[in-house]
Amino acid sequence: MAEANEILSELNDRSREVFRRVVEGYLESGEPVGSRSLTRMLSERISAATIRNVMQDLEFLGLLDSPHVSAGRVPTQLGLRMFVDGLLEVRDLDNSDREKLDATVGRSGDVGGLLDEIGSALSGVTRGASLVLTPKHEAPLKHIDFVSLAQDRALVVIVFADGHVENRVFTPPPGLTPSAMREAANFINALAEGRTLSDLRKVMQEEVKARRREIDTLAADLIDAGIAIWDGEGRNSERLIVRGRANLLDESAEEELDRIRSLFDDLERKRDIAEFLELTEDGEGVRIFIGSENKLFSLSGSSLVVSPYMNADRKIIGAVGVIGPTRLNYGRIVPIVDYTAQLVGKLITDRSQR
């Protein structure tokens, strides 16, 4: 987060150490940290009054908060983000944690069972909730269907050429009708056969770009002729406004306008379809989400630490993570999640090469 990094760079050494000690104390105990306890922690001999002044400055910057008038301070979400990005000291993986994770290797014969066991081990080691995203199936596609379940829920059925079938529930774009979903499925299936989901998504993105260029070319011809103007040019809401069409346009120009209208409709449908593909094929990267940075956990005040795992080609095929309170022991959790991701990637790669 750029804002947090800018604030960190402006802090002097004393403020930085006070801030770091407050966050570390809070993450360890879950309790507000006061000025008197900080006088025993700091490397520099500073009075409690001076420390209180520093903490007030940090509170003014939005890095600390005071739960009660006379209590110590706790880090805000911005403060936690700054600590994680700039001051977090990641420990080496503890041997006992490594042994517990390694003990899951080879227990299950199938990938699903293996991931379930690793998820249980990760949860036990971290005492948090584990998250395991299974590998994406990258075989060529055979057929895709969309089924409306409710106004805000739909099912996509993906049939792969190797016989594998996946069902995924997702939230469709607002206002999309069952007939529009059928039309989207027909369009996708005309392009899908023999392509993977990743390939198909790229093809759809190119279709959108091509239609956009075609619209721009046709509209430019009308504008050059003085028949139409762009309203709101350069904004997301730009529209083509036609002036005096009934009086000024001859038959050929009318056909051009119909073509533009048709292209806009086609472009909008392709945007919906591209969104379908994005919702049904989403990849995860290496990130730490704190509090409201993750919409799923914003109300519960939780954090999510996620690390991807890769196949033999160094391609991300899934992810593992830990969900817990925002006062997670990040220094310990990060190497555990990182090691687990490496372990899963190695196991899946080994199994695929047998």
Automatic annotation (TrEMBL):
Heat-inducible transcription repressor HrcA C-terminal domain residues: 114-334
GO biological process: negative regulation of DNA-templated transcription
Transcription regulation as UniProt keyword: yes
Database matches in InterPro entries: GAF-like_dom_sf (IPR029016), HrcA (IPR002571), HrcA_C (IPR021153), WH-like_DNA-bd_sf (IPR036388), WH_DNA-bd_sf (IPR036390), WHTH_HrcA_DNA-bd (IPR005104), WHTH_transcript_rep_HrcA_IDD (IPR023120)
GO molecular function: DNA binding
Chain ranges of the Winged helix-turn-helix transcription repressor HrcA DNA-binding domain: 11-76
Gene3D superfamilies for this protein: 3.30.450.40, Heat-inducible transcription repressor hrca homolog, domain 3, Winged helix-like DNA-binding domain superfamily/Winged helix DNA-binding domain
Record keywords, A-Z: Repressor, Stress response, Transcription, Transcription regulation
Function: Negative regulator of class I heat shock genes (grpE-dnaK-dnaJ and groELS operons). Prevents heat-shock induction of these operons.
Similarity-based family: Belongs to the HrcA family.
Name of the featured protein: Heat-inducible transcription repressor HrcA
Organism of provenance: Sagittula stellata (strain ATCC 700073 / DSM 11524 / E-37)
Name of the encoding gene: hrcA
